[in-house]
Design a protein that fits this description.
Helix content: 25-40%
Distance between the termini: 19 Å
CATH architecture of the largest domain: 3-Layer(aba) Sandwich
Number of helices: 8
Radius of gyration: 19 Å
Strand content: 15-25%
Shape: globular
């Protein structure tokens, strides 16, 4: 290896924090330079990312509805390797990561990467300030660094790469569908077209929400206008310094309250070496 890469999509910063920590731990163990490829903003998803046999990438994505963010899949399929070692990571918001890590591992294998290890860590939920509040916290960061050290030791031992199925200890099967929120009668709740609202009385006109939106969906000239798609990542709401961004859709609010009622326990991380 000649270079370590931290590669991530991180609207609210939790995936960034985790991915960078793992990558930095490995780069320090090998005294190798660390490069950062942050493709959170739309302008960073124009050119493909290509890596060679002397690179190692630590790639991190958040979990949305138990899978990878579907609107990112076209870009993710342009990330190419050539016998490039990879460590896939996913961050889930205290419920479950379902098939997101499996999906990322399969995608990387198809595109020329060789998997060394994988992990699912916990970050504060995009919808909530209660689910996984403050995570990754100090306890998590210790485990994240320990994971980076374990990966480094595995690399020093020249351990052979494993397929994602072997890493996860699973038999091959189709991917599970996206998680569907439901009401108390079991009927599905569709929040795909839900978008945040702006309180003009609180808005200070800083434009931060538009600059934070990873889909470039908020009009910077009029931030109350959201002509593009919203992936409910929480970047605008949690990043607004005045608290002017909010959601009022009944289905969205019900889904958030049900998640908070059911998943307030401290979710456990999973590492695969």
């Amino acid at each position: 290896m000649q270079q370590i890469h931290a590669v991530y999509f991180s609207p609210t910063g939790t995936t960034r924090k985790t991915c960078l920590t793992v990558a930095q731990t490995i780069s320090e163990a090998f005294y190798l330079p660390l490069a950062v490829e942050d493709f959170t903003r739309p302008q960073k998803r124009v050119e493909p990312l290509v890596y060679g046999p002397k690179d190692l990438i630590v790639i991190g994505l958040p979990v949305y509805a138990g899978r990878l963010p579907n609107l990112l899949l076209p870009f993710l399929k342009t990330i190419r390797g050539e016998h490039t070692k990879a460590v896939p990571l996913v961050l889930f918001g205290n419920r479950n990561y379902d098939d997101a890590l499996l999906e990322l591992g399969l995608l990387l294998e198809e595109q020329g990467f060789e998997l060394i290890a994988a992990a699912a860590f916990v970050g504060e939920h995009a919808f909530s300030r209660e689910l996984g509040a403050g995570r990754p916290d100090r306890r998590d960061m210790k485990k994240i660094r320990e994971f980076g050290t374990s990966v480094s030791e595995k690399l020093k031992e020249n351990a052979s790469p494993k397929r994602i199925w072997e890493l996860l200890g699973e038999e091959e099967r189709p991917l599970k569908p996206y998680y569907t929120p439901r009401d108390r009668k079991g009927n599905p709740i569709n929040i795909l077209k839900v978008k945040p609202k702006l309180d003009p009385a609180k808005c200070i006109g800083c434009g931060r929400c538009a600059s934070l939106c990873p889909m470039g969906s908020i009009d910077p000239q009029d931030v109350s206008n959201i002509p593009g798609k919203c992936i409910k990542c929480g970047a605008c709401e949690k990043g607004c310094p005045a608290g002017a961004i909010y959601f009022d859709d009944p289905g969205y609010l019900y889904h958030r309250s049900e998640l908070e009622a059911q998943y307030t326990r401290r979710a456990r991380i999973s590492v695969f070496l």
